[in-house]
Amino acid sequence: MFKKILIANRGEIACRVIKTARKMGIATVAVYSDADRDAVHVEMADEAVHIGPAPAAQSYLVAEKIIAACKETGAQAVHPGYGFLSERASFCEALEKEGIVFIGPKPKAIKAMGDKIESKKFANAAKVSTVPGWLGVIENADHAEQIAGEIGYPVMIKASAGGGGKGMRIAWNQSEVRDGFDRARSEAKSSFGDDRVFIEKFVVDPRHIEIQVLADGHGNALYLGERECSIQRRNQKVAEEAPSPFLDAKTRKAMGEQSVALAKAVDYQSAGTVEFIVDKDKNFYFLEMNTRLQVEHPVTELVTGIDLVEQMIRVAAGETLAIRQGDVKLNGWAVESRLYAEDPYRNFLPSIGRLTRYRPPEEGTFGDIVIRNDTGVTEGSEISMFYDPMVAKLCTWAPTRLKAIDAMSEALDSFVVDGIEHNIPFLAALMQHPRWREGRLSTGFIAEEYPDGFAPIVPDKDEKAVLASIATAVELLRRDRLDRLGGRLAPHSGILKRDWVVKIGADYLSAAIIEGMISIPMELDLSIDGGKALTVASDWRPGDLIWRGTVDGRRIAAQIRPVPNGLRIAWKGMSVTAQAMLPRIAELERLMPEKVPPDTSRMLLCPMPGLVVSIAVAEGQEVKAGETLAVVEAMKMENVLRAERDLTVSKLNARPGDSLAVDAVIMEFA
């Protein structure tokens, strides 16, 4: 077994590998760029080596620097994680020449399966069911249009060396092929240094289901069940689960055996994933094979009890798999939510900044629930524009699917993140969505259910009653605390007032205290808007970030943040401002004028912090609705900004190469 390994990666996956290596008694070496000098993975590892500037192309993607770090520290093997150099056969070969073991498959398998075009050809030759498409070289946009027309719309334009949704576009008609081809090539070149793309038929309403395989160097290979990865946005996975609520035992077995056959055909040695698209009739088609550890591997670990990183290390060290196919049992259900640094209310645009608060839910086993959080950040960490926007992977396990989803819902409600915009509100809303809870999924789920983007959720009558109850309980404790401050001339609140008004958004709700007293823990009976009596019980104290308790017997975990004259309460994807007031104060509050936001309708604002790639218009130019105005790159993704209506450009405030903050004015219109 190895005595020391180097992790050629960063963030949560580097931390994940370090944890298993530590468990196995193996010393670890981290590498880091200028941007990651104070990163968590650097602190966790036994040693750390600086490898260059912040851009990945000058640090994490430079194989020579990784090899030099191995020689400097005496690392015997390299675990590549995912992304970066994880699927580059040339990196694997370079390590072999230096006598350093690559913890992953051999170059032959990486070449055969790692390249999306070559893997399709190989799968066709091996008689694996594949999606119709064009796997040859696509010369230009005209050629792309011709191919797409022959295949039939819609088509998928995809980077050959791609992954993580980068370098991928769907074209529904001829007019979208040319722009999609150009954007896919540009992103592929920027992210992977390889601008080749291929085109294939896009299966309507497909599920994205993948099979985890594991193989050693002694001819043994097996599959560890499947993962349902259909909840995607811009072809990037958002939430995953294992097993799939769609597959039956027969289909699972067929997909698993086909995946193992493919792995054996390329002499695969390590953990790998065979991805399929599955139609409504359970017909499945080979999509690609990822010759690395997948981001979503924790859900497989939770339902099988098998540490995939440990198995990768043991296989790389030459050991024989101690597991046989008959040993693999799928136990319970696991769900993973990817926490991204992005604003769900602004079409999920990237967000950067410092984590002023980062308080994930407690990990561990709680009765029949398991909570796991794979992360590479801590409070005070900075989310930069140089790398992927994923902050953490929150996972829950339970005996049944709905219990795992409910556990995830409560864990998300308890996950406190401040300093950046993030997608927790969307993830929390997803856990309540009827279609998700019923398992009626497809890769078009987000686009279909949120066609106009994700908007703030408006609470219904019962939810408003819960929020108003929390706001009232918090305000009573706040006033009681003020009464106890020394040196006050008179109590702030005096005796317990029975009648209150709670403003939630623009609604004013009456809150009547029926029975109870102010104390910690607190238990009150109150009525909201003349409704039935609700019992509110909690041991919340002023200053706690999470209000935990029950309302009418319903278990609640809600985030509490003070705002002027009230609270911001976040719960199950809802985020509302609540003010609990005495009736006379509420009368006066109704008279306050509303602040009107500034008019930005004649401006193009930068929707996220990013780099201006191009400006497609000139001052004085007339543009039509839908035409491209500018392209802004953020976190390796190019975002095309288009005109929402017919306009005339009056002034350009930015030019290519400019780094802009969110809401910076790119151009103005007449």
TrEMBL record:
Cofactor(s) needed for function: biotin
Keyword field: ATP-binding, Biotin, Ligase, Lipid degradation, Lipid metabolism, Magnesium, Manganese, Metal-binding, Nucleotide-binding
Ranges where the Lipoyl-binding domain occurs: 591-670
Keyword Magnesium set for record: yes
ATP-grasp domain segment(s): 120-317
GO molecular function ontology, one term from the record: propionyl-CoA carboxylase activity
Entry-linked Pfam families: Biotin_carb_C, Biotin_carb_N, Biotin_lipoyl, CPSase_L_D2, PCC_BT
Swiss-Prot/TrEMBL GO biological process terms: lipid catabolic process
Catalytic activity from the UniProt record: propanoyl-CoA + hydrogencarbonate + ATP = (S)-methylmalonyl-CoA + ADP + phosphate + H(+)
EC number per UniProt: 6.4.1.3
InterPro entries according to UniProt: ATP-grasp, BC-like_N, Biotin_BS, Biotin_carboxylase_complex, Biotin_carboxylation_dom, Biotin_COase_C, Biotin_lipoyl, CPAse_ATP-bd
Keyword Ligase: yes
Enzyme class: ligase
All copies of domain Biotin carboxylation, residue ranges: 1-451
Pathway named in the protein's UniProt entry: Metabolic intermediate metabolism; propanoyl-CoA degradation; succinyl-CoA from propanoyl-CoA: step 1/3
Superkingdom assignment: Bacteria
Identification of the protein by name: propionyl-CoA carboxylase
Source taxonomy: Bacteria, Pseudomonadati, Pseudomonadota, Alphaproteobacteria, Hyphomicrobiales
